[in-house]
From TrEMBL:
It comes from Stenotrophomonas chelatiphaga. InterPro entries: Flag_bb_rod_N, Flagellar_FlgE/F/G, Flg_bb/hook_C_dom, FlgE/F/G-like, LlgE_F_G-like_D1. Transmembrane segments: none annotated. Belongs to the flagella basal body rod proteins family. Residues 5-35 form the Flagellar basal body rod protein N-terminal domain. The keyword Kinase does not apply. One of its GO terms (biological process) is bacterial-type flagellum-dependent swarming motility. This is Flagellar basal-body rod protein FlgF. NCBIfam families: FlgEFG_subfam, PRK12640.1.
């Protein structure tokens, strides 16, 4: 009976953690470039003295859904949709590089190019990009940034830099608590994407299936309730067994 209680208890805990993952996905159904977080459970045998009868159900981070989200035309030249396998390089809060597919960019008052989360976009030399005063700007499919300086004519359009967009293997990316992805093997840095890497004037939407996530949340809730019932019945059975032992004693 003790074994059944232990398995049900750890299963209920894992179900609650999985619900947290699914609720996070639902909250980001409208976040551009968001990749659905995946959750799973697995059995883990508890080692120690005595008979090996304890099995822990543990929550496992199964990575993220690689599917490309739907495309939304915005007409804003600072909205970028990345090609499959390509990732925008930004400056991580603690320094160094991080990667995202959320490329709804904007300019700060001092001209720095940043993501919606406020992370500085890096150029191919790994420096934050600052845009000089301009009257028109264009971002090419290869990430090159061209501007017409303020007060000048179209003939003065010039390339001032190139956004660093890397070709990254999904298996080598890991999402951090800040929502940014990082290279799991820094000794093998990602390389700049060659050729067409993005489309300007459109955004990739979240790849979360809202209806499917809600169904998953209901299933996890029912699963949790079932595990709680097992704990409750197990406790009642234990009380009944103790009563019988006292009567026989």
């Amino acid at each position: 009976m003790d074994k059944a209680l232990y398995v049900a208890m750890t299963g209920a805990r894992a179900s609650l953690q999985a619900q947290g993952t699914v609720s996070h996905n639902i909250a980001n159904t409208d976040t551009p470039g968001f990749k659905e977080a995946l959750a799973n459970t697995e059995a883990f045998a508890i080692r120690g003295e005595g008979f090996a009868s304890r099995v822990d159900a543990i929550h496992v981070d199964a990575g993220f859904n690689r599917r490309v989200g739907a495309q939304h035309i915005t007409g804003n030249p600072l909205d970028l949709s990345l090609q499959a396998g390509s990732w925008l390089t930004v400056q991580a809060p603690g320094g160094g590089e991080a990667y995202t597919r959320g490329a709804a960019l904007s300019l700060t008052p001092n001209g720095q190019l940043v993501t919606a989360g406020g992370h500085a976009v890096l150029d191919e030399n790994e420096n934050p990009i600052a845009i000089p005063p301009h009257q028109a700007m264009e971002i090419g499919n290869d990430g090159t940034i061209s501007i017409i300086p303020l007060g000048e004519g179209p003939q003065t359009m010039a390339v001032i830099g190139r956004i660093k967009v890397v070709a990254a293997e999904d298996a080598r990316l890991e999402r951090g608590l800040d929502g940014l992805f990082r290279n799991t093997d820094p000794q093998q840095p990602f390389v700049q994407t060659q050729g067409k890497a993005l489309e300007s004037g459109q955004l990739e939407g979240s790849n979360v299936d809202a209806a499917g996530a809600l169904v998953q949340m209901i299933q996890l809730q029912r699963q949790y309730e079932m595990q709680v019932k097992v704990i409750k019945h197990g406790d009642e059975n234990a009380r009944s067994a103790n009563s019988l032992l006292r009567l026989n004693g």
